[in-house]
DNA sequence: ATCACTCTTGTACGGATGTACAAGTACGAT
DNA sequence: ATCGTACTTGTACATCCGTACAAGAGTGAT
């Protein structure tokens, strides 16, 4: 209906009233939206249009702020990495204050797994980085996050070992959609930690 | 050039001579091709046309044998899982014959990592399964592969622990495109295994 | 007030994609 | 021999994609 548009060359009515300018906020909103879309659809099914819709912005905004789709996705992954590293600083504090760090670490992991979307995107990053060289620095930074946090306490090598079991347990929980096996994880971390001495009579 | 299609309604000349019928071979070829495309492009960028081209078959073959794209991809992942489980039986034998199974397991992992495409697709499966319920049985089966293999020797729980470190180390190597840290991995596996007793005076 | 510039918004376009389908062909049953 | 069926092959089509771009509209300098 509405026999509107008598002159197709000029139809400024349907145009959305222009919003206040805020380039940096837009960049951030797009990065956040990209992160969410990647978490939900995966890197391969992330599109300009999905991100724009998610951010509530017109399609053109995506290409204005990010020259190419890969850049947009990279921004989303970068945003996720920043979020994780902010979390890690909190973790570090919590670990420092805990009398039993292996158990505390397990608790943190379980908490981390509450929001699977966040977890999902990190592993998505790993797999994507395996394919795309440009993402490798991001993946490396992510991979170094937990070990760097643990290194002051237990040394870098052991920290990497602990991070590996942690990743393995989380990957299992993620892929099979099950709960984290906390008791086994804590025990495994203990056995990997340098001050672990099993009872001799076992 | 080439004066185009004088009679567009009838042009049976260019038609490829029909190949011998072999439905099962086609199914298998498509599954294999799907596996390869997924390994190279990822689940999200796998298309009918890429798989068909890879298999050297016409586009229609993909939809004839697999009703939907998701089915085609699932078939590819299933194919990869079968390949892995075949490998696992060989691993099992190699482990049984080795006097030092942690070291042997590390060697096998390193060998496994030689072909990153194969490794890649397995982790792709995990991430995809986290998003898609239909893939979860496949991911679970994959996750159980290594633990089931190790369980007779060290028990299921410890086997899962060892599998977790293994996965963690492999994930790191995959994401950062580095070599597997074999000495650290072997040491970590040893510390997780039940008969490990650290030297008391350390 | 004018201008230059940056940001916003909508739309266009060539191409790729999932799926449907028509036309043709091998092959076993009769 | 013929016939029905299951398989093969090419193409059609609506939709979605990445990217380009034109047309406004704020904003600060002059």
UniProtKB/TrEMBL annotation, chains A, B:
Superkingdom of the source? Bacteria
UniProt DNA-binding region: 47-66
- Per the UniProt record, one Pfam family is TetR_N
Q: What is this protein called?
A: DNA-binding transcriptional regulator
Q: Which PANTHER family match?
A: HTH-TYPE TRANSCRIPTIONAL REGULATOR RUTR, TRANSCRIPTIONAL REGULATORY PROTEIN (PROBABLY DEOR-FAMILY)-RELATED
rRNA-binding as a keyword? Answer: no
Region: Disordered, residue numbers: 1-23
Which terms are listed as keywords in the entry? DNA-binding
Q: Which InterPro entries match?
A: Homeodomain-like_sf, HTH-type_TetR-like_transc_reg, HTH_TetR, TetR_C_31
Species of origin: Actinoplanes couchii
Where in the sequence does UniProt note compositional bias of the Basic and acidic residues kind?
12-23
Q: Locate the HTH tetR-type domain: which residues?
A: 24-84
The GO molecular function terms of this record are: DNA binding
